[in-house]
Structure formats: C-alpha cells, structure tokens
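TA notes. Do not distribute before section.
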Amino acid sequence: MSTPKKDIEKVEVRVKWDPSDVGEPDNDLDIIAATYSTEEPYGSPVYLVHFDSRSPDGTITLDRDSRTGQGFGFDEVMTLELDRLSDAYARVVVGVAIQQRDGHKTFGQVEQTGVQIREGYTNLAEDDFSSVAGNTAAVVAEFIRDSSGSWGFNEVVRGFDGDPDSFAAAMGSR
C-alpha cells in the first residue's frame, strides 16, 4: 500500500489480464476515468473517458485498448495529464470494469489481473484485484486538486457489481 502523494502531474494507469480459455467468451477489461467539477466534486461526472473516447481537451487519453487481453505486458493504458487539466475540475476517479456481454464475469474469474499506476518511473500503486475478486468493476485511483491547484493521489480499490454503464454512473460516489 502506498501513501498519499501530492504534486502529481502526469500519470499512467495500466491494466493487464490473461485471455480467456479457447472457446470461452473474451475477457475484456476497460479503464474508465470520470472527471468531476470544482462545484460538485462528488456529483455527476462532467465527462467520462473510456474505450473509443478521450477528454474534450486531450488531457486524458486511452493509449492502448484491448478487447481480449492477448499480448505481452499491459493490455490497456490510459494517460492523465493532470497538470494540464482545467481549473474547472477538482477530482478525477479512475476505475476498471469487466465487459458483461456474455454473462456475469468477476475479477476472480479472470486470470492474472493487475493494475499499476505510475508517474514517470515511479509506481504510485499496484494491485491484483484479489480484494475485489467477487466484483465486476473497481475504483482503482482518485486524484484530487487542493486549494493551491496541486493534484494529490489517493490509492483506493473499491469493488462494484454491475455493468460498465452502471459502474460509470456510480464510481465517483462516496
């Protein structure tokens, strides 16, 4: 477990998992980032960034998207340039959701899952989702801007059950 860190500028959230067995539906995990306004940091997200999208200003981008988990290393990578994010935003919450197209699938049913949050070459947090093995989605990071404008990092792994749409709507709640 890491400690809260201040003055975060640019981070990468990286997720990995093994492909499903032959003949089984694909394992498809997705990184989702939700951005919250200064006026309502715990209200509804102003916008979401996930597969097939990016932030309107280009500060949050999905650099790598996998629908199967095939390949080496990390299968999905999202970059958050918090130092460039408008002052209108005070909070960014990042989560990982498992697509539920072919039935109910939890983290415990996907082999070799892992998430890593990095700033440059420094690992801010790592987790294998074992604490949320019975869930279909999990919040993995929270970035909060303080009154001086600096971004801080809170490591959290909080599980949810539901499809990616319902998770995206609820992931920033308290």
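Switch to the second chain here.
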Amino acid sequence: MKKVISILCFFVMSLSFAQVKWMTMEEAVNAQKIQPKKILVDFYADWCAPCKTMEKNTYGNPVIADFLNQNFYPVKFNAEEKKTIEIFGRKFTNPNTPQKKGRNSLHDFTQFMNVGSVPSTVFLDEAGGPITILQGELSAKELEPYLSLISENLYKKIKTRLEWEDYQKKFKSNIKE
C-alpha cells in the first residue's frame, strides 16, 4: 500500500512540474524535416521581467507545457543572442554595433521575424513560414486558445474579428484556476 501511495504522489508531483522541452531554432528546423510540426518561438531577453514571468507562469503551466511538447517544436530564442545561426539557407548574426544606444542590439534572426520587442511569441508553419506573432506578456489562459487555434489549423478559417471573437467564446480551457 505504501508503494502505491508513493507512486501516486510521484506521478502527481511530476505532472505539476511539467516543463517545456525547449529546442534551438536549428534543432526545430531539422526536426521538421523528419516529422513536420509547427514551431513556437519564444523571443526573450535576459533583462526582461515579463519574459521571466511568462517562463515561470505561462510556459511553466502543466497544461501549456504538455500541449507545446505534443503539438509544436518549442524554441526559446534570446532576441539579443550573440551566436551565429544558420537556418532557412541563411546565416543570421548579431553585429552588436558599438553605436547602438540603450539595450543590446537585436539579433538578425529576431529582426528577420519582425520582432521589435520582447516578449514576443512567433508561430511558424511546418515549412518554417510565418503564421502570426503575438507581442507582449501572455498568461497561460491567454496563450492557450492560440495554441489550439494554430495547432489544429483553425486559423486558416478565421477571416474576421467577429469569427475570432466567436472562436474565443466557444473555446473551452483546460487550465484549472
């Protein structure tokens, strides 16, 4: 009986600590070649407080983490990354020009994805083409309908604001408060 209780406690604890299995952009693009899936890119910066809140509360939510791991290739990308990456047949760098004032310069890939601020969430289709970008901090409840909409290709059917509002009203969240 003690073993059963111990196993159940371990199982419940492991569910509450679900984590997103983050990949690099290169890993996600290569994985798409083997098994096509959409990519979610979380653009962040080390100094960004809302980014840290999203990491803990949004991506740390077990429902969100599980959904991402099953339906997307999740990528975490530092918008001010210093390393060169090579994807989509191109090299992306961060020149980090000395005349840049304020924060560090944005990586070329960040600019290529039209990300001008962090946090930003970018969705790419199975071929690496852009679907949409969500700018700003999102709670788990705010992100969840987008994950479902995009993973199930429902975004292709929604053409008007009214259709989007109707989708949101009908959406049933799996997040318990």
